Amino acid sequence: MENIITIHAEPRKDISKKARKGLRASGKIPAVIYGITAESVPIAVSLADIKGIMKSENKDNSILRITQGEKTKFDAMIKEIQYDYLSDHIIHVDFIRIDLNKPVDVEVPVLLDGEPVGVKTEDGLLEFIHREVLVRSLPTSIPREIRIDISGLHINQSIKVENLARNDAYQFISPANTVICAVAAKAKEEVVAAPEAAVAEGEAEGAAVPAADAAKGPAKEGETAAKGPAKEAAKGAAKEADKGAGKAK
User: For tag attachment on the chain, is the N or C end more exposed, with fewer CB atoms within 10 Å?
Assistant: First the structure.
């Protein structure tokens, strides 16, 4: 990356809420330039310039040359953009001074190329876990993106930062074991018995109990009925025999 975008800034002496609101109404954005050793400088920049930067190839990793008049110039990068929480309107921008001869640490987007074989033929699921990686390089050597070929990725395999191709222009600062993407096996669905089958089984068990009781009940009643009259008849016959024996005497 070698292109440097030049934008014009105006000094901002009034930093009140009313003044900031007035700037936005006129198509400008309140901003601050921060530096490691120098003091922060409040400025105002064009909203159109900021939108143009965000539409450029390098977006917030663009190298900016901020000018104030004819003499004052700052080489900087966007540190943070603040948006209105109710909309996507930009309300404030923070810049950070840079030295073109000293490395900086920036987040670079990761792009995936191809369809993993684990998804294509093994019914796996692609998980894109980290979409940016932290790199360190000179401002003019910041990569626009990191592209990864994932077509050879099988199920249960992953790509980590340590697997990324090295480049002399920059070095990776993200931990080596950071997982960029992986192909995972799909979760198996648990088979649950149908409610109708469970109810039918419960009804069958419930019906078996009365049936067993009913089978036992009549058998006992029949047994008692048979024993009762026979016992009484035997007693009667014994009494009659005793009477007959008395008369014979």
Answer: C
Torsional sign, CA 39, 45, 51, 57 = negative
Record the pTM.
Answer: 0.68
> How far, rounded to the nearest angstrom, does the alpha carbon of residue 230 sit from its chain's CA centroid?
85
Residue 170 tokens read as: 């920059």
Q: What is the dihedral of CA 112, 116, 119, 122, to 10 degrees?
A: -160
| Best CA proximity match to 170, nearest among 145, 132, 135 | 135
Structure tokens at 105: 């640490």
3-state secondary structure of 128: strand
204 torsion bin: left (phi>0), alpha (psi -120 to 50), beta (else): alpha
Residue 126 phi/psi, 5-degree rounding, is -80, 130
For 88, other C-beta atoms within 10 Å of its C-beta total 6
The token pair at 91 is 């309300």
Other C-beta atoms within 10 Å of 77: how many? 19
Q: Hunting for tokens 């070929």 — which residue is that? A: 149
**For 90-142, how does the pLDDT look when each residue is reduced to its tens digit (9 = 90+)?**
999 999 999 999 999 999 999 999 999 999 999 999 999 999 999 999 999 99
d(C-alpha 95, C-alpha 42), whole Å: 10
